[in-house]
Amino acid sequence: MAIVDLANAQLQQAGAGAAAATMREDDDGHDHEQESSYDYGACLMKGVRHLSDSGITRLPDRYVLPASDRPGAATVLISPSSTIPAAAGVAVGRVKLPVVDLAGLRDPSHRSAVLATLDAACRDYGFFQVVNHGFGSEVSGGMLDVARRFFELPLPERARHMSADVRAPVRYGTSFNQAKDAVLCWRDFLKLVCQPLREVVPRWPQQPPDLRDVATRYATASHALFMEVMAAALEALGIPAGGGVLGELAAASSHMMTVNCYPACPQPDLTLGMPPHSDYGLFTFVLQDHVEGLQVMHDGRWLTVDPVPGSFVVNVGDHLEIYSNGRYKSVLHRVRVNSTRPRISVASFHSLPAERVIGPAPELVDEQAGNPRRYMDTDFATFLAYLASADGKNKTFLQSRKLPVPAAAACV
């Protein structure tokens, strides 16, 4: 979703200037958003942390979803397979994602078994959890701690980093797509571009004082973890060592971190922290605190992820579904909020450089074997053009890149 958010920033430029924040002061000097057409601008400028801290007890209308889109609404069936009962061991409404143990991946005697787990997870769920990744608590715990302290800064300090510049290496904002959302999301975020690291870090926030050092260590470790998991995924796909995109990624890649804050919400059943979406990239790695909220679409149902303490939640992005020629699945996911506890997460988005055209790996296309090319090539410019012409819901961009598949091949 990193590139999605960059694109949203570009689309935002036309709309952000049109809304203005209009405030009034009551007799005791407290600010209140006016119930007028300018309320949208006020929400954009101050975000949900401000609303939550103000002690509101009723969700502002701009955050109330239509009844059919609310998190408690019945799920709309999205495919014939959605009527199939959940796999064994999956409780209704919750899911324990497959676990990929990197200690086993690094052990030659266990590597093949771990690769099989990784392959099945990417095929069946599009999500898995990584354990024994080697991150010390000072790296992962430190990142969550500094993220929490950033969102506790006074609003003027956070607001210094607001930007509609699509190329800005740091950007603070709220919702999902601030210019086009009919309903705003219950989320504030800090986005940090991480490539090239030495060039962008001096432009990251200076407060809290240790943010740059902590986030640099975390970004470096996250990229190394991505490269290890990506190498394993290529091996699981049957792409020979030294082949595929690994060499390209070692030379140049895109990497962005999104630090998310989902404050306590007065009416959580009426809104979402993030709407249903898929990620435009290869892999996304999510570090989260102990507060649950991430939900994935599986067999036509929304399932809340039971996090494994100390793990990373990893999901397949659109790029990897295209590159794997449909073998691995980029699936819809969303974030729920709650009325009592704030939630902090850090999402690291990894892919090829934005200008790189990506299509199915040649090794995974074989017309004679009944495995034809299933996706058109794509690039960032194509994605931007699509966003400008559609609402982006229900991962329709990925659907737009699919090629017609002969009936015989579709059954393979």
Strand-helix topology:
Blueprint: H1 2-16, E1 23-25, E2 31-33, H2 39-53, E3 94-95, E4 99-101, H3 102-105, H4 111-124, E5 127-131, H5 137-151, H6 155-159, E6 170-174, E7 188-193, H7 197-200, H8 211-236, H9 246-251, E8 254-262, E9 274-277, E10 283-288, E11 294-298, E12 301-305, E13 312-316, H10 318-323, E14 333-335, E15 343-351, H11 380-387, H12 396-400, H13 407-410
Parallel strand pairs: 3-12, 4-5
Antiparallel strand pairs: 1-2, 5-13, 6-7, 7-8, 8-15, 9-14, 10-13, 10-15, 11-12, 11-14
Helix pairs in contact: 1-11, 4-8, 5-8
Report on the structure:
Residues 253-352 form the Fe2OG dioxygenase domain. Belongs to the iron/ascorbate-dependent oxidoreductase family. InterPro entries: DIOX_N (IPR026992), IPNS-like_FE2OG_OXY (IPR044861), IPNS-like_sf (IPR027443), Oxoglu/Fe-dep_dioxygenase_dom (IPR005123), Plant_2OG-oxidoreductases (IPR050295). The chain is α+β, with helices and mostly antiparallel strands. It has a domain at 71-76 and 91-353: Sandwich (Jelly Rolls), CATH 2.60.120.330. It has helices at 2-16, 39-53, 102-105, 111-124, 137-151, 155-159, 197-200, 211-236, 246-251, 318-323, 380-387, 396-400, 407-410; strands at 23-25, 31-33, 94-95, 99-101, 127-131, 170-174, 188-193, 254-262, 274-277, 283-288, 294-298, 301-305, 312-316, 333-335, 343-351. It has an 8-stranded mixed sheet. A 5-stranded mixed sheet has the order 3-12-11-14-9, with no helix packed on it. It has a two-stranded antiparallel ribbon with strand order 1-2. The longest helix is centred in the middle third of the chain and has 26 residues, at 211-236. It is globular, with a radius of gyration of 21 Å. The two termini are 30 Å apart.
